[in-house]
Design goal:
The chain is α/β, with parallel strands linked by helices and 378 residues long. It folds into two domains: 219 residues, Periplasmic binding protein-like II (D-Maltodextrin-Binding Protein, domain 2, 3-Layer(aba) Sandwich); 97 residues, 3-Layer(aba) Sandwich (D-Maltodextrin-Binding Protein, domain 2). The chain is 49% helix and 13% strand. The chain is built from 19 helices and twelve strands. The strands form four sheets. Strands 8-7-9-6-10 form a five-stranded mixed beta sheet. A three-stranded parallel beta sheet has the order 2-1-3, covered by helices on one side. It has a two-stranded antiparallel ribbon with strand order 4-11. α4 packs across α14, α14 crosses α18 and α18 runs antiparallel to α19. The chain starts with a helix and ends with a helix.
Length: 378
């Protein structure tokens, strides 16, 4: 998808590139435009800026693996440009992060997957998904060395270490024509990816799904001939929606300028990330106190690791429908319109604003982001 968009926009990119390079009559950067706008607002009338963030400090949980776009946005001053400071709030697990969010102890969660917030919404917690983090999380599917692999068909009738709430897999099985994927695959649930990996090496299961953080160890085991990496979750379902950004609906509605300021900063970070991945690895490794080799093992895999601030509305709706059909949502879900918990308007406004303010920094990125939004959120 990412590559198709880039291909389609190649001609437009060339034109935009000529405009950016040739427009030397104006040397205003996106940051200078932002500062000029702020100065003008400060000089007008009572000095109140109607576009100023309602809340300058945002309490955020991004798990132990962090959020590379936040890392870049802080390091490059993009959040500061928007008048936003991030206060990190730690949680021990995805469920704990959801509890912090539901109780108002954190404003935003960005690393707790898609199933978790959707299950919370289905149970009656009033959350809104307004952006994204990972679209595809570089999650390998592994098997013993020499194992046969024919795509998702290989799961049928087999014991696999995959939690069936991972909708990409159950959805793909249903796409094969099986109405009840829970009956045709023996899904084994392990709370730790390392335990699932051990189950593969022992022969207790045929296949196992690994987390993003297991890439380095899995790659080393594959190189040593101990296992095979047969696929990735993103090959099972493209743009499956790995992690969304969510907050309480009331917080989103009460803080639209804050939400847009955060999104603008993260969009600039995404543009920078896509052109400077090696530096992003170094920055993020330092941020999460990991080795560069560990971070590079997933972040430099352009085929299976994809981050985007986009809300990914269509993929979230698809996930909701799969989770509902497979019984992973509360019965209350039947009475809920999931689109009422998806706010794409603020993202679209922020994207337009960011393109106007910072488009000169990376014109091709913003054109691509607009096209991606049209394809995945309309």
């Amino acid at each position: 998808m990412k590559r198709r968009i880039l291909a389609m926009l190649l001609a437009a990119t060339m034109v935009l590139g000529l405009t950016a390079c040739g427009g030397q009559g104006s040397d205003s950067s996106g940051t200078e435009k932002k500062e000029e706008s702020a100065d003008n607002n400060a000089d007008a009338g009572d000095g109140v800026d109607d576009d100023a963030p309602e809340q300058s400090v945002v309490k955020w949980n991004c798990g132990t693996s962090g959020n590379v776009l936040l890392t870049i946005a802080e390091d490059k001053g993009y959040l500061e440009d928007e008048g936003i400071t991030i206060e990190y709030v730690q949680a021990n697990a995805n469920a704990d992060a959801m509890t912090l969010l539901a109780t108002g102890k954190v404003d935003v969660v960005s690393n707790s997957g898609t199933s978790n917030p959707l299950q919370q919404i289905a149970s009656g917690v009033d959350l809104t998904i307004f952006g994204g983090h990972m679209v595809e999380g570089c999650m390998p599917v592994v098997a013993k060395k020499g194992a046969e692999w024919n795509g998702i068909e290989s799961f049928i009738g087999k014991k696999v270490a995959v939690n069936p709430s991972y909708f990409a897999f159950t959805g793909a099985v249903m796409d094969l024509g099986y109405d009840n994927p829970l009956e045709v695959v023996d899904w084994e649930i392990y709370t730790d990816y390392n335990d699932a990996l051990a189950a593969v090496t022992r022969g207790d299961v045929e296949y196992a799904l690994m987390g993003t953080g297991q890439n380095l160890s899995v790659q080393e085991m594959a190189a040593n001939g101990e296992i095979d990496i047969v696929s990735y979750q993103s090959e099972i379902m493209e743009n499956y929606s790995c992690c969304r950004m969510e907050a309480q609906t009331k917080w989103v509605n009460d803080n639209p300028n804050t939400v847009k300021a955060v999104i603008r900063a993260l969009l600039r970070a995404q543009a920078y990330y896509e052109d400077n991945k090696d530096e992003a690895v170094k920055l993020h490794a330092e941020k999460i106190e990991a080795t560069e080799e560990y971070v590079a093992a997933y972040m430099l895999d352009d085929e299976h690791y994809f981050v985007s601030v986009d809300p990914l509305k269509n993929s979230v709706i698809r996930a909701w429908e799969i989770l509902d059909k497979t019984g992973f949502l509360d019965e209350k879900a039947k009475e809920i319109n999931i689109e009422d918990h998806l706010n794409t308007a603020l993202y679209e406004e922020a994207l337009t604003e960011a393109a106007e303010l910072y488009g000169d920094e990376s014109p091709e990125f913003y054109e691509g982001a607009k096209a991606f939004f049209e394809e995945n959120d309309k």
